[in-house]
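Morning F.,

Quick status update on the modeling queue. The single chain you submitted on Monday has been processed. Sequence for confirmation:
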Amino acid sequence: MAPRAGGTVGYLSRLRLSAARAALRAGGLIVYPTEGVYGIGCDPRDHDALARLLAMKNRPADKGLILIGCDEEQVMRYAQPLAAEQMARIRRTWPGPVTWVLPARRDVDRLVTGGRDTVAVRVTAHPVAAALCAVFGGALVSSSANPSGRPPARNALAARRTAGGALIVPGRVGAAGGPSIIRDGRSGRVLRGTGA
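Structure tokens below.
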């Protein structure tokens, strides 16, 4: 179960959560641990923050970005539900390290979708990432905290090297072993395997 904003996440202090929320609301970037790697994120509704994140990673705008939430409601603000059978298959993997590509709602920023009519979303199982979503009150961008094409960061020190002025939220990455698996919501087909 995802942590609530007022709850505790072991070593993660309320002060650090408050600082992260303030940074996000001010249009800043944050770096934080996820199921398999350190991620860099921002408010997916903030176009300028999205553009800065892409520039920091040197990531092409047409690749799109993953969104994470602490519960299904947060990520489904950006995606349209599929048929009941397909949604049941998706829910069996959440929370967890599986990202699903679903039809995007019309108002999702093109830098999130990469200009496509789909959006990649995941309900995170990582306690720090989930706590950040909970305290922020919505989904966050979750892209690996490394320049595009370089190996993903698996600790705060490695993430700090490419974080620029982003706020670092420390913690251990989960046991997934690499970036999340990405699957097509309609077909279930694997688009990216773990560690890719």
